[in-house]
Amino acid sequence: MRLTRKLTLALAFAILAVLGLDALLVIQSRAEMFESAIQRDADVLGRTIAVAAARIWRTAGESQARDLVQHANEQEGDVSIRWVFLDAPADNPRRPEVPREQIGPLAPGSARSIRWRAPGSAIDSLYTYHPIAVPLSARAIEVRESLEPERAYVRHTIVRGALTTGVLVSMCAAVAMALGAAFVGRPVRRLVEQARRVGAGDLSARLDLRQRDEIGELAAEMNIMVDRLSEARVRLQAETAARTSALQQLRHADRLTTVGKVAAGLAHEVGTPLNVITGHAQLITDEYAADTPAHRNALIVAQQADRVASTIRQLLDFARTRSTAPTRQELGGVVRETAALLSSVAHRRHVTIDVDLPDAPVWGRVDPAQMMQALANLVVNGIQSMPGGGTLTLKLDRRRAQPPAEHEEGPGDFVCMEVIDGGVGIAPEHLPRLFEPFFTTKEVGDGTGLGLSITYEIVREHGGWIAVESAPGAGSRFAVFLRPLEAA
Fold first, then answer.
1. Please, what are the domains in the chain?
2. pTM higher than 0.90, yes or no?
3. Where are the beta strands (DSSP E) in 237-350?
4. N or C: which end of the chain has fewer CB within 10 A?
5. What kind and span of H or E run contains 190?
6. What is the pLDDT along the chain (488 residues), one digit of tens a residue?
7. DSSP assignment of 52-82, as one string?
8. CA-closest candidate to residue 205, choices 188, 186, 219, 217
């Protein structure tokens, strides 16, 4: 509202100045016209009396001429008419009221009007002098008319003009305040509130100002600015997420490098002793009968040594740089071979592997050995998650999906290989860490936590990703997405 008040005051002052100047010019013009009219009337009256007095002087004498002037003075109540001697001394009552030097010379037939304020008077008067054409010189008719009517007229005009100006300024100010509040005050206040919301980070609100003026344009531009800020915020969040993901991948790669170094050293240092242990255990089992304690103990030692060697091999497989050679493959065959490979393992745990393949072949560019390893890791995990047995489904199809942000791809058609189990499920707090090396929820001795990490790396090297859905007690669904190839 401060801007509205300023605009209203500026408008009021402008109107006041214009009307004041106009009133001043009007008053000045009217005063001059009023004075000019008085002067004309006085000139006509004085000239008429001077001519009449001169004629009576010539026919009836000076006394009769003066009587005429006196009688005329008595008839005119607002005007004073006198017979004066222009060259009379200062103490002569017949001298003019205006000083002689102000009157100046008067030629016969001429007249002189002078605005003069007599001593002791508070109001100017208009004095008009007409010489009388008589034998004796320096006789004149003095017509004096007070300018009080002019003063009253000017005063009345000033009062009326002031009232008119005051009413007009008040009405204009009221209209300006109302229009300013409607078209300036409230819109500007909403603009300020919107700017504060944007400054506070709230980019959800939009201004709806339907004014077709500069304020409306400003509101529209502010809405566009907010939209651009929202888009920039989304881009920034996406870029931040991408940078965070990249940083996590770099840290993961650094951990893998460390693990690789440790694995290589561990394999070198532990491999030979494990071979010695396995060899001596084999000698003992060969030397003693199968039903002796020594044979049984040696067999346990050999089995555990083989288990340690297998763990080290997995660790090396995880840390070692693999050479991937993708070729055009019919993925249904990869799925069937994986199921056949693990059927005996599933049978021992009372799990049935159900293969669900589409009627038409599904082609993809993969390294078959590595893809079978990735699927096998998922299937083994599924089998181990069903201690009471059940059905595990291997499913292959094509579906439309949206890749994760780090793939920088839009939605499209992908190959999907799913491993669906009816096991114990995965707790929500464990889902973000499933593919971390050495992370496992199994009992000690049941796993190393490397299987899912290896699977993740294999799928990523093939340009795909893994989606996981799981809940405690509801089983798990691991979906491997790959870019398909069109059938030949």
1. 2-153 (3.30.450), 203-321 (no CATH), 324-485 (3.30.565.10)
2. no
3. 327-330
4. C
5. helix 186-199
6. 566 777 778 877 888 888 888 878 887 887 788 778 888 888 888 888 888 888 888 888 888 888 888 888 888 777 888 888 888 887 888 888 888 888 888 777 788 888 888 887 778 888 898 888 776 667 888 888 888 887 787 888 888 878 888 888 888 878 877 777 777 777 777 878 888 888 888 878 787 777 777 777 888 888 888 888 888 888 888 888 877 776 676 666 666 666 666 666 666 667 678 777 888 788 888 888 778 888 888 888 887 777 777 666 666 655 555 556 788 889 999 999 988 888 888 888 899 999 999 988 889 888 888 888 889 889 988 888 888 889 999 999 998 888 887 776 778 889 999 999 988 888 888 777 777 766 565 554 455 556 777 888 888 888 888 999 888 888 889 999 998 876 44
7. HHHHHHHHH-HHHHHHHHHHHHHH-SSEEEE
8. 219
* Residue whose token pair is 């400003």: 218
Q: What amino acid occupies position 46?
A: G
